[in-house]
Amino acid sequence: MEKVIWDIEANKVTSLLKEGKRVDGRKFDERRKVTVQKNISDNAEGSAKVNMGLTEVMAGVKMMLGTPYPDNPDKGTISVGAELLPLASPQFEVGPPRENAIEIARVVDRGIRESKTIDFKSLCIKEGELVWIAFIDFYVTNYDGNAFDAGSIAALAALNETKIPKVENDKIVKHEYSGKLKLAKQPLLSTVSKIAGELVLDPTLIEEKAQEARFSCAVSDDKTMCAFQKGIGGSFKASEIDQCIDLSFKSAKEIRKLV
Amino acid sequence: MENKKEEKAMLKEAKPVSKETKAEEKPMPKEGKAEHKAKKIVIPGDLIAEGRKKLGQHVFIEDGKIFSDTLGISYPNSETAYVVPLSGIYMPQRDDLIVGIVERETVKGYMVNINSIYSCYLSADKCRDRLEKGSIVSAKIDSVNEMNEADLFDVRVFYGGTIIRVVPAKVPRMIGKNGSMLAVLKEGTGCSILVGRNGWVWTKGGDSKKLAEAIDLIESEAHLNNLTVKVEAFLKGKKVNE
Amino acid sequence: MAKKDEKIEYVKNGKRLDGRKVDEIRPLKMEVGVLPNADGSAYLEWGQNKVLVGVHGPKEALPKHKQNPYKGLVRFTYRMASFSVPDRKNPRPGRRESEISKVSGEALEKAIFLERFPNCAIDIYVEIFDSNAGSRAAGITAASLALADAGIPMKDLVAAVGVGKAGGEIILDLNKNEEDAPDAVDIPIAIMPRTEEITLLQMDGLLTKPEWSKAVKLGIQGCKQVYEVQKEALRKKFAEAEKGK
Fold this sequence. Notes:
heterotrimer; B: alpha+beta; CATH 2.40.50.100; CATH 2.40.50.140; Ribosomal Protein S8, Chain: A, domain 1; 3 domains; 5-stranded antiparallel beta sheet; 3-stranded antiparallel beta sheet; 5 helices; 16 strands; 23% helix; flat; C: alpha+beta; Ribosomal Protein S5, domain 2; 5-stranded mixed beta sheet; 30% helix; globular
């Protein structure tokens, strides 16, 4: 029922692209307007809300104490979770995260982790016994496509605000902080959709309905990439991947000013 | 080496026709078809032909070239580009003769399992006999829609007998040229046999154990030449042994 | 421990820790038609990785609301046996397996003529019984063979390999030691070999664009090596019947 309408909309996207236009009038390499609002939650150690066109994401970081992995006794870690809330779109269902949410969370996680922006050794309190685990969770509250980028921007904005709680006798002292979490890099994800053979940055929901393939690239600075993810059933030529990478470097540069 | 084998095979099987050895240049007798020509094992994505050709089954065109879409055998010298698959489920096609089993009764008819993706609906008006769950029927495919759902006609009910399962892709070899293989099987085993295009073979009476063995032989060597001769020898050999 | 790693020369005189050249894949063996109960199946050994794949279908996709009237669904399930890794793996499927299942299924979709099977599903079950880096590439490679074995119509096979970086060198088909290098980059890649279209691409680790250009070339070349072994395995299915009698 609903699908029928999407098919018509998706056809519109495709036919316009063939004329060199996008449904919302953006250029192929243009992002939707991004606004970032920081510190949206007092209980979180760091938090942010990101609006990217109509897509809205809330992210928060909770710093928790835990024991390190046996193979990395002197390192803390991070954990990223994503939830596509049912209120964000009629397509999302209540219940544990499905594979879409898992994929988004894992790609955002890799972008942050692999950029080595957080020195995991600095998260160690007592070797082999006590380390910080930064739980970064984001919730998509309104979905109009591309939760990958919105999630990545929100996660980074929240991390940039994150304070490290004070620890006494191996316990967290509530509402007292010992300092801020240090980030060495500003890793950001950029997602490109391939629709009717064209590459467009930052797809909206209808563009996602029309896409053949999707490619996300996280970059940690102007020269270095730190994560890739190709998704959806279609394919890319190697030269198209190169174009996507160039778009990612360019786009991340702009977004860095906001977070 | 492959070619020599081909030629030998051709000589044996096409004995009444001629002693011509360069088979490829001559148009083959109608029912002789594929077996007599040079053949090639192909996998999905293998090039079948560069130029224009009539298109048969299991091929597709990309950039003006013809490729195989399945694992099977192609015949480079045939007029039509096609591939005989090695495996695959049965997809109903109009006019196929199939063997089915009644799965359940509905208000006005029956659902018949035909060893494909969907069961077929069979209206009670279309069959004279009353069927029940488990009845074995033969029927022809009337029409197939875009979802691969089929309608049946010309339904006949079997009383008794059993079903032997064959890989659907190998059914043509079980029948043989002009039914030659089927005739050999019937004669050699004394069974009544009806081969469904869907890979279900109904059989009754005769030496059904021997029939099953012969069918195994056909299945494992379906892509080889001289199969009819081999099966005949197998069936006769058995007789001698007994 | 970690400090020791930094001194390892991952490539010395053109040879890697296990004696391979930079563009050499680990020993690769494949066999099709190994499971009588599946419509198609394949078994693959790639270095220490051991993978069994079964394909069922096409069949009606259930529940009904999951059906797509335009094309068939590919449902890919990647699972690791509890004993397939050094520490026992919790047999409950985790997030990693969930993601690998998703991207692996998507890597095969374009090769299959799915539009011929509206409302249907093709189920692919990949079980990893032993692993040492590169199990997802092994799973996709074997799954593509099992699909061909099931007679499912396809445009091409899909061949996959891992490419990446260790100790500053771009190398093909990383093993676990190389994947644990401090600067390791892991790039699983899958292509349809005839057109070189990329259907799976992931990466983690720090990589520059010139390194990427080198890696993608090596990756495509690696996939083609894998493709040759795939072709051989499928052809062998005929050859065996011919020899056997």
